[in-house]
Automatic annotation (TrEMBL):
Belongs to the glutaredoxin family. Monothiol subfamily. [2Fe-2S] cluster binds at residue 31. Transmembrane segments: none annotated. This is Glutaredoxin. Keywords: 2Fe-2S, Iron, Iron-sulfur, Metal-binding, Redox-active center. One of its GO terms (molecular function) is disulfide oxidoreductase activity. The lineage of its organism: Bacteria, Pseudomonadati, Pseudomonadota, Alphaproteobacteria, Sphingomonadales. Residues 18-82 form the Glutaredoxin domain.
Amino acid sequence: MTDAVNQRIADIVNSNDVVLFMKGTPLFPQCGFSSRAIAILDHLGVGYETVDVLQDQLIRQGIKGFSDWPTIPQLYVKGEFVGGSDIMMEMYEAGELQQLMSESGVAPAS
């Protein structure tokens, strides 16, 4: 992975409170895991950005090394890697994802 790709990913992660690297878009997720991740974020009512990794192969490969996590989607909150859709679901069901958003000062969706 190139430094340029790493820097692009870091810029995206650090310039958004909540960012989801996913397959597809929020309106047209291209896999069930991405769809579930969007549903969780929508339920939380927080503002978030998404990156469609299917549109950029460098980002698609680079994000896996950036987080040291092999699968997509990947959620970042305030610059920190949280996990994929399974971890998001577990945290959501336990109330931990809501707590993380609240404690991190993530703004509600406008």
